[in-house]
Amino acid sequence: MGSLEAMTKGSDQRYLGDTAKLKIAQGVVGAVADKGSVLKFMPYTMQAVKQGFQDLGASSLESAHDLLKSSILRLEVRTGAAQVEGGVHGLVSYEKKSF
Fold first, then answer.
1. Pfam family of this protein, just one (predicted)?
2. What are the boundaries of each domain within the chain?
3. CA distance 81 to 83
């Protein structure tokens, strides 16, 4: 469905809501200010990937594939709830710094 603004512009027709007398919004309208170039985040991202491979015991993408094929490395699917549970929770406050 979408925001009321989107529904008035026709998105309600896609979801068979164009005949409904009562429109229920399931979204919001917002904007994000430009954060600038992604280039300043690339060194941070590259280092995070390198450390992730180090945690896996792999020195490259190819060696990570080899670990998967040999069943030394195993992956599991996690739900959104499991990801939230695996994060920081239960603290009164904490500060997350990107870098």
1. IMPDH
2. 4-27+38-76
3. 5
| pLDDT digits 0-9 by tens, 40-99 | 889 999 999 999 999 999 999 999 999 999 999 998 999 999 988 888 777 777 777 766
Token pair for residue 47? 């280092």
The dihedral through the CA atoms of 45, 48, 85, 69 has a sign that is positive
Q: Who's near 6: CB < 8 A, 6+ residues apart?
A: 27, 29
Distance of alpha carbon 88 from alpha carbon 96, whole angstroms: 10
Euclidean distance between CA atoms 99 and 83, whole angstroms: 21
Q: How does DSSP classify residue 48?
A: H
Q: What is the pLDDT of residue 28?
A: 72
**Cα–Cα dist 35/48, whole Å:** 20
Q: Among all chains, which residue has been given the structure tokens 């490395």? A: 73
- Model confidence pTM above 0.70: no
